[in-house]
Design brief:
homodimer, 214 residues, alpha+beta, Arc Repressor Mutant, subunit A, Umud Fragment, subunit A, 2 domains, two-stranded antiparallel sheet, 4 helices, 12 strands, DNA-binding
Chain lengths: 214, 214
DNA sequence: CTTCATACTGTACAAATGTCCAGTATTTAG
DNA sequence: CTAAATACTGGACATTTGTACAGTATGAAG
């Protein structure tokens, strides 16, 4: 996917922001007016460039028919109240094979949609849901059947719940520091309590939790 | 708020569905065409009626500037994978005044977006989020800061967590039956454990729970 | 019966809007 | 230097679109 020029990104952002703030995409002339173009053609040219590069969709002949095609991360920007919310679709995995789920759509058990602000995540980060099995995290009030929303590639802070890969199995543990060294702690007395962090691979940090009625 | 006629509701639904499915509100002529009107004026008249009754907003002079003002079933249908998902926006209240929140937008603390399937709710039912204060539901692994998604107008089943109004305060309790009589149980030893159900008003049943990272 | 609201038809026009053509700088890549 | 891409100006035109005015028909309310 080609990159955008600075100007093109400005145009795209303007279209997005108009859609977000007013719930209505701008016209070519409104774009031109905002950037002080004296002709709608400059706007047209930019829009065409954006379409060609796959960042925008435009239905020819129809007013205000701009659709920002989200490049990074699937997601949508929805009108909401006065402003807007950004939602991402998060796949739910029952178990995660070694490594990161690339396109493990087979193992997928479903989906949750979450608004970005609720989670406080960056839409660029890779996020997935992990169905909790067993009661290893009871001490953190996480029970069987809960869906842990896990974000990959985030530095865990002490006390965070993390998803770690141990013996090919993904488990939730608490990330802690002791004497400057990182450890993982299981939150249930029946499990080995402390694991040195070197022995395993942290898949991600839990940023949210979703629980359904049973 | 006045009621809509059957035809007006059809028009409103069409505008909504167009916005949902195509991401673009229709023009007067597109409305007319869909209903086989031979003039855009019929559409105009209906839109004006909808605006007057407060179900729709329209910016005069601007193309496709329709905004369905969510009366009851706010929500969107998003493309998702092969199919689509329906999402609703759920307001979060820190506290709920007596009665049901009608347009208590002042007390609102934010919003969560949840896909309907995850919750298994009927989009018509009135749903809201309730920010949990304190640890009265620790026994059910619900902690301070959690957001309980509560659905109004649903019959609670024994064992369900319900939101109940006691002394003007909304509290979460467990709904149980004992000898055929309904009771509410607090899930923390420091609280009075059993309350006969007659003394209070059940606001709704918790259908889901959302927890953010602190 | 009359009055009113609802639900349209038909014509028309002006404003909003998309889009084409022909240019001019400026920058970037080779 | 040359060619191509980018970033515009200016004018023009055809559609799309919103909207006003003038009617017709129907059913409900009084």
């Amino acid at each position: 996917m080609k990159d955008l020029t600075a100007r093109q990104r400005q145009i795209l952002n303007f279209i997005r922001s108009k859609q977000d703030s007013e719930g209505l995409a701008p016209t070519f002339r409104e774009i031109a007016s905002h950037f002080r173009f004296r002709s709608p053609n400059a706007a047209l040219a930019h829009v065409q460039a954006l379409c060609q590069k796959g960042f925008l969709k435009h239905l020819p002949g129809r007013a205000r028919s701009f659709f920002a095609l989200d490049q990074e991360g699937s997601g949508w920007t929805l009108p909401h109240g006065r402003g807007s919310v950004r939602v991402v679709s998060v796949p739910i995995y029952g178990s995660i094979p070694a490594g990161l789920p690339q396109d493990a759509s087979q193992e997928q058990e479903g989906c949750v949609l979450i608004d970005v602000e609720t989670l406080g995540i960056k839409p660029t980060a890779r996020t997935f849901g992990l169905k909790v099995r067993g009661d290893s995290m009871l001490g953190r009030n996480i029970v069987d059947g809960d869906i842990a929303i896990v974000e990959h590639g985030v530095q865990p802070r002490p006390g965070d719940v993390v998803a770690a890969l141990i013996d090919g199995q993904v488990t939730l543990k608490t990330f802690i520091m002791q004497r400057g060294k990182p450890y993982l702690r299981a939150e249930n007395p029946r499990y080995p309590s402390l694991v040195p962090q070197e022995e395993l691979q942290i898949q991600g940090v839990m940023v949210a939790l979703v629980r359904k009625r049973k």
